[in-house]
Amino acid sequence: MAASDSSSDDSLYPIAVLIDELKNEDVQLRLNSIKKLSTIALALGVDRTRSELIPFLTETIYDEDEVLLALAEQLGNFTPLVGGPDHVHCLLPPLESLATVEETVVRDKAVDSLRAISGQHSPSDLEEHFVPLVQRLASGDWFTSRTSACGLFSVCYQRVSPAVKADLRNHFRNLCQDDTPMVRRAAASKLGEFAKVVEVEYLKSDLIPMFVNLAQDEQDSVRLLAVEACVSIATLLQQDDVEQLVMPTLRQCSGDTSWRVRYMVADKFTELQKAVGPEITKSDLVPAFQSLLKDTEAEVRAAAAHKVRDFCQNLDSYQQETIIMTQILPFVKELVADPNQHVKSALASVIMGLSPILGKHNTIEHLLPLFLSQLKDECPEVRLNIISNLDCVNEVIGIQQLSQSLLPAIVELAEDSKWRVRLAIIEYMPLLAGQLGVEFFDEKLNLLCMTWLVDHVYAIREAATLNLKKLVEKFGPDWAQNTVIPKVLAMSRDQNYLHRMTCLFCINVLAEACGSEITAKLMLPTVLTMAGDNVANVRFNVAKTLQKIGPVLEPNCIQTQVKPVLDKLNVDSDVDVKYFASEAIAGIAG
Amino acid sequence: MSSHRLFGIFGEDVPSSEQEGLFIRKLRQCCVAFDFMDPVADLKGKEIKRATLNELVDYITAGRGVLTEPVYPEIIRMISANLFRTLPPSDFDPEEDDPTLEASWPHLQLVYEFFLRFLESSDFQTTIGKKVIDQKFVLQLLDLFDSEDPRERHFLKTVLHRIYGKFPGLRAFIRKQINNIFLRFVYETEHFNGVAELLEILASIISGFSLPLKSEHKQFLLKVLLPLHKVKCLSLYHAQLTYCVLQFLEKDATLTETVVKGLLKFWPKTCSQKEVMFLREIGELLDVIEPSQFAKIQEPLFKQISRCVSSPHFQVACCALYLWSNEYIMSLTEENSHVIMPIMFPALYRISRGHWNQTIVALVYNVLETFMEMNGKLFDELTAKAERQNV
C-alpha cells in the first residue's frame, strides 16, 4: 500500500468512519465495526495503526462489555498489523485497561490476549514494557486488576533478568497474601503454572511457602485451589523434597475440615499419585485414599470411588495385588452398600476394572459377589453401570458366571417404568449380544428386542430400530432372515398404525445390512402392500421407505415393481402422500 | 417463669459462689455435637442438651451479674462448636426448589437464642466481648449466611446487626467482608443464599452514614450494589437491593446520575422478568428524584424506556407505560416535554397503529393523549413527522 501523502480527508477517513460507527446506538453495529478492526488497520498501514488507531482505542473506548470483549480478542491478533514483534508492545496500553474491566469475560479475554502476545516480545521489551504492566496491574486499587495480573507471571518470567525475576516473585507473593479472597483465589489457581517456569531453588525457597500459606488460608475456596497447585509442584520436585516440602500440606488437605477441600483431593487423586511417585503413594496416599472412601460426606466418597480403578491400576506392580486386596478392597466392599446412590453408581462404573488387575481367582472369590450384589441394586443407574462394563470381566473369567444373574437384571431394566432407563439398556444390547453369543441372545433376549419395537415411547422404538440394525450387522443376514425379519414383517399387519410405521422404519435400516436379494424377496412385497394402507402417514412412509431402499434394489425391480406403486401414490388424495411420492420418484430417478 | 440460678445435674441447689463454675461446665457440655441425620440416635443425649440449652437461655436472660469475664470465651467456644460448620453440598435452586432445612435446628435454634440474649444483655461488656468476638469469629459467622435454612439466616441477620452496633472496631471489617461475599457472588459463583439478609443489614448501615459520604461508600454503591443487579436470580433480593439504592440517593442525590447510568448499563437484554424489576426500580427512583438530577439522565433513560414500551413482552411494555400513572413523573415529563416527547413519540405512534395486546394499545393512547395536552404544538409536529416517514 502506497503511504503517500494523500489529502487530509483521505488519510483521516478510516478513523473517522470508525469513530462514527462506534457512536451508533445499535450495539450490534458497534460490535460489527470492532470485529472489522483489522480491516481498518490494514487500510491505515502499520505506522498510522500504531500512532492513531491504537491510542484512539486506548483512550476512547468506554462501551458495553460485548464490544470490549470483541476488542480484547481482536487485539490479541494485531501484532502483524502494528508492524510485527518489534512493535508489539504498543498493544499493551489498550489491553492493560481492558484487563481492569469489571466484567469477568472481558478481563479474562484481555489476559488471554496479553499472554498470547507476550511471546512475541523480545526480552528487553518484556523488561521495558510487559513487566511494568504486570507490576502496575498487581498493585492496582481494585481487585479486578490484581486478579488479572496473576495470569501474566508465568508467560514473562523465564526471559527476563534475575533482578526482574526476583521482583516478579515478590509481587506474586503479595498477591498470594492479598487482602481480597478473589485475588488469593486467582493466585492459587495460577501457582501451578508459575511453578513450572521458576528455577528449582526458588521454587523451594519462594513458592513452596506461598503454597503452604494458601493451603492454610481461612477460606476453603482458596485452600482447595492449592490442592490443584500441589499436583504441579510435586511433579517438579525430587522425591525427598516432595516428602519434606509437599506431603505435610497434602496430608493436612486430605483431612481438612471442609468437605470441599477433601473433595478436591479425591478428584485429583490419580494426578497426585503420578506426581508423588510409588513410594510416597504406598506410605501416604493409600491411607489417605482409605479415609476418603470412608468420608462422612457422600460427595467426597463418590469422587474417591470414581478413582478406584485408576488408582489401583497405577500402583507399583511390586506388591500391587497385596495392597489392593488388604488395604483397598475392604473399603470398596463397604461402598457397595453405601446409603448414597451416587456413591454406589460411581463405584459400579469402575469396579469391574479391578478384575484384570486381580486375576481370575481373586475375581471369582472376591469381586464376583460384589458385581452380583450391584446387579441387584435398587438404583437402576448402578445396575446399568455394571452391565456397561462387562467386557473387562469377560476377558478374565468369561460371562457365563454372571449370565445367570445378568438376565433378570437386564429384563428388569428393560421393563423399567422410566423410559430413559429402558433407553440406556437398549444401547448396550449390541455389545451384550456380541459378548453373550448368538444362542444366548436368541433364547433370552430376542423377545425383548422385539417388544421394544412396540414401546409406547417413540424414542424407545427409534432406538430399538437402530439396535436391530446393529444386531444384523453383528450376526449376519442369514440370522436376520430366520429370526428378525419374519417378526418385523408381522408388524405390518398390526392394528396400531404406529406399529405398522415402525415396521417400515425397521425395513429402512435393515435393507442395506441384508442386501439386495433379501430385501427384494422378503421385504419389498410387504412395503408395496402397505401402499394401500388406509392411514395416510403409513402411505407416505411407504414412499419414503421406497426411496430409502431404492439404492439396494436392482434397476429392473425398481422399474417393474416400485415405480408403478409410486406413480399411484403420486395421485393419492392426501397432499403429503403426493409430496413424498414425488420426492421418491425424483430421488430414484436421479 | 425465668430462673436466675442454675441447678446441678440432679436438680440440686448450687451455692452462688459456685454458679460461675457450673455455668462454664454446662456450656462445655453443650459443645458436644449430636447426629440429627439419624432421627433415633441418642435421643436421651439430645434431650439433655436441649434442656440444658433452654436452662442457659433463661439463666442469661434473667440473671444479673452472670456475665463474668471468664465465661465470655466459654460462651464463644460453645457457640462456635455448634454453629461453625462447612455447609453441606447442595444443588438447591432458590428460585425453584424448597430449601432443605437444618436437621439439627432443635439445638441450633436455642444456640442462636442464647447468642442473641448474650449480646443484648444489659450486663454485656463490649470491652471484654471484643477479645473473643474477633475478625476470625465474624468471618465464620458471615459464611453461615449461605445456609439454606431461612430461619438460620434470620437469626444470623439479627446477630450480625447487634455485633455491628456494639463493636465499632469491627465495622470496617464487616463491610469489607460483605463486599467480598457480594463480589464473589456477582463475578464468580452467582450462588449465595444470604444476599437478601445481608442487604437488609446494609440498608440500616447505609441509613447511618454521615455526610458527606466517604469515597469508600460511594465506591460500594458503584462497584458492588449496582453490579448486584446483573445476577440471574435478582428476584430473590431485588426488593432489598432497591431499598439500599434508594437509601443512598436519599443521602446524596447527586449519585442519581451514577445509579441510572449503572442500571442502563446492566439493563437486561433477554430476561423479561428482570426487565420488569428494573422498570419498577426506575419508577421508585423517579418518584423521589430531584428535577435537576432528572434533567441529567432523562435522555438516555427515556431512550431505554422507549425500547421497553416497544417490547413484544406485554408485561415489560405495560410496566413502562405505567410510569406515567405517577403524577410526579407526569409533571417531570411535562416540564421536559421538549426532550422526552421526541424520544418517546415514534414508539408510541407505531404501537397506536397496532399491537397484539389491546391493553397496551389502550395505555399507549392514554399516554399520547396526555402528551397532546402537555404540549399540543410539539405533538402535532411529531405526528406530522411520523406520518411523513410512514408514507
TrEMBL record, chain A:
The keyword Repeat applies. Gene3D superfamilies: Leucine-rich Repeat Variant. It holds the Pfam family HEAT_2. Residues 278-359 form the Phosphatase PP2A regulatory subunit A/Splicing factor 3B subunit 1-like HEAT repeat domain. Keywords: Repeat. GO terms for molecular function: protein phosphatase regulator activity. PANTHER family: PROTEIN PHOSPHATASE 2 (FORMERLY 2A), REGULATORY SUBUNIT A, BETA ISOFORM-RELATED, SERINE/THREONINE-PROTEIN PHOSPHATASE PP2A 65 KDA REGULATORY SUBUNIT. Belongs to the phosphatase 2A regulatory subunit A family. This is Protein phosphatase PP2A regulatory subunit A.
UniProtKB/TrEMBL annotation, chain B:
One of its GO terms (cellular component) is protein phosphatase type 2A complex. SUPFAM superfamilies: ARM repeat. It holds the Pfam family B56. It comes from the Eukaryota. Gene3D superfamilies: Leucine-rich Repeat Variant. One of its GO terms (molecular function) is protein phosphatase activator activity. GO terms for biological process: signal transduction. InterPro entries: ARM-like, ARM-type_fold, PP2A_B56. Belongs to the phosphatase 2A regulatory subunit B56 family. This is Serine/threonine protein phosphatase 2A regulatory subunit. It comes from Cryptotermes secundus.
